[in-house]
Design brief:
heterodimer, A: alpha+beta, Pathogenesis-related Protein p14a, 8-stranded antiparallel beta sheet, two-stranded antiparallel sheet, 10 strands, B: alpha/beta, Rossmann fold, 15 helices, 50% helix, globular
Chain lengths: 206, 351
């Protein structure tokens, strides 16, 4: 009897600790969404980051959370021949853009990594941490001297934007949102005229 | 016959012992694999520390990092004799604040509850990561259940809050020394909920806030604001709304107007400290440790002193420094407070 009990305890323990059942994997994926958001993992566990990565990867080591999930078929921003897109690694374009006018970095409430904001004359690029690298979270137009690759700019009429991008948009929080791949192109209108344009990743919203 | 009974008795005893053994082992394993928040991210430990207190506070702050990094209960005590506590946690959402207030009021009835309104910007659950840092530290109560239900992301499961082992079990392969060191108890992180920072990183530039499509706070957020107001009214607690003087992220004028109107409609006090930084004496070249997001100790001391005077003059709070037991309690707390201040300052100097 005692042997049976001991065996039961042992089996239960093994099951609890090592079970990487579908449920467990789902739970791990769900909880922090590590595959997509390393910063969340850092938040929840801080110095347990590696541990949690293991949780997510079910023993396969620390996953590289998010590579560039934007292809050039998605909406991208071009400035001076440099292409920038949400979730793109900053290494791919920062040097080419030259010195920003301003640089700001913030360590959020409990994040280990830094969110970084590079402000250029006509646009702003913000990033989120992905391990040791930084990926673009949004590109925000500051004035009408820059345009989207398709030709939209601040001040353009709503009708012209719809003529450029079509009617396949959603309205969310007062914005017209065109979604493509893992990113969104967002327009805000006032009096039927564009007052704000931004490219944003959807990774951080998930 | 007797033998049969004996055998049954033995079987029953063995099964009972076995069950107890299983429960104890699983309980220990759960403690072992749960995050201890004793490394770089200590904020997750703050919520649980409240339960060790005597819970006789005049003022209880609730809210996000803008309360636990910007207000210093030690200053309220030293300068005004106000006994206060901060029930703050990282990105605390308004429904979590509500349930923390509700829970607090089952233990005690402070004169004032102070709520930082930045959380109104969130109308929906945001990240399980932050949920955990607020909720895991709460003791089981109807308020905790309510907080979990209001906070869960789509893919979260209630059962994983009940049995965190189900959530964290895979950490077994990467346990660290501190998981064992703090298995039966963590070190105290906060000073009555205040998380001390003494570094200095001046504000040189603050990015302009991005334009929003809709500046209205969401219905869900407002509904919890209403509940908080009703709760405080019912318990006879004065609710004071504040916006801490953090320069980033942006606190939009459009947001401020909504809070002002709400406060006026509900006869609440509302102070936007961003509008009185000069009066407070804040110097953002020395009083912030992260370029404007949060104040460091030196800035927080100024802000708290300013607010202490407000609490005395506008809320009628009385000086309790002559209460011997409370004064003795604070003597111990202040000793630890100044010890940590010295330690952190020494570490800063070494940098």
């Amino acid at each position: 009897m005692k042997k049976i009990l001991l065996a039961t305890v042992a089996v239960l323990m093994m099951a609890m600790l090592t079970a990487c059942s579908e449920t467990a994997e789902d739970a791990a994926d769900t909880v922090v969404g590590l595959n997509d958001k390393v910063s969340d993992a850092e938040t929840i566990l801080g110095d347990y980051k590696e541990t949690m990565s293991n949780v997510d990867a079910t023993g396969e080591g620390t996953p590289n959370v998010q590579t560039n999930n934007t292809s050039l078929d998605d909406f991208v921003f071009e400035f001076g021949g440099v292409t920038i897109a949400p979730d793109m690694n900053t290494k791919e374009f920062l040097d080419k853009l030259g010195e920003p006018l301003h640089y700001y970095e913030v360590k959020s409430c409990a994040f280990e990594g830094m969110d970084k904001i590079y402000t250029y004359r006509s646009f702003e690029v913000s990033t989120y941490p992905n391990g040791t690298e930084d990926l673009v979270s949004y590109i925000y137009f500051k004035d009408d001297t820059v345009t989207t690759q398709e030709g939209a700019y601040i001040g353009m009429s709503k009708a012209d934007v719809i003529a450029l991008y079509g009617s396949d948009y959603t309205e969310s929080a007062g914005m017209h949102v065109y979604e493509s791949g893992g990113m969104e192109l967002r327009f805000i209108f006032e009096n039927d005229s564009v007052v704000s344009i931004e490219y944003a990743t959807t990774v951080l919203d998930e | 016959m007797k033998e049969k009974k004996n055998v049954r008795g033995k079987i029953f005893a063995t099964v009972a012992i076995g069950l107890v053994l299983i429960i104890v082992i699983l309980g220990l394993l759960q403690r072992l694999v749960m995050p201890k928040y004793m490394g770089e991210v200590k904020e997750g430990a703050l919520i649980g520390e409240y339960y060790d207190e005597n819970k006789d506070f005049d003022v209880v702050f609730i809210g996000d990092c803008e309360v636990y990094e910007n207000f210093v209960p030690a200053v309220l005590w030293e300068n005004y004799g106000i006994n206060s506590y901060i029930r703050g946690s990282a990105q605390q959402l308004i429904w979590q604040s509500y349930y923390l207030a509700e829970e607090t009021l089952t233990y005690e009835t402070p004169d004032v509850i102070v709520f930082n309104v930045l959380a109104l910007q969130y109308n929906e659950p945001q990240k399980e990561a932050y949920n955990r840092m607020t909720i895991d530290g709460m003791r089981w109560s109807p308020s905790k259940v309510g907080s979990i239900q209001a906070s869960m992301m789509e893919d979260e499961n209630f059962i994983e809050y009940v049995f965190p082992l189900l959530r964290y079990h895979d950490r077994w392969s990467a346990l660290e020394k501190e998981d064992f060191t703090y298995l039966f108890g963590a070190e105290k992180v906060g000073h009555n909920g205040y998380y001390m920072q003494v570094g200095i990183e001046p504000v040189e530039y603050i990015p302009e806030g991005r334009r929003l499509g809709d500046y209205s706070f969401g219905d869900n957020a407002w509904s919890y604001m209403d509940k908080m107001v009703a709760l405080c009214e019912e318990k006879g607690v004065e609710l004071v709304l504040i916006k801490a003087p953090s320069l980033y992220p942006e606190w939009y004028d459009e947001w401020d107007v909504q809070v002002e109107e709400y406060a006026a409609e509900h006869n609440l006090k509302y102070i936007n400290f961003l509008e009185c930084t000069e009066e407070i004496g804040l110097d953002y070249s020395t009083d912030t440790y992260d370029a404007g997001l949060h104040l460091n100790l030196y800035g927080a001391v100024k802000l708290t002193d300013y607010f202490g005077e407000y609490l005395v003059t506008e809320c009628g709070l009385e000086d309790r420094r002559r209460e011997e037991a409370l004064a003795a309690e604070w003597e111990v707390k202040l000793e630890r407070f100044y010890e940590q201040k010295e330690e952190l300052e020494a570490l800063e100097e070494e940098k």
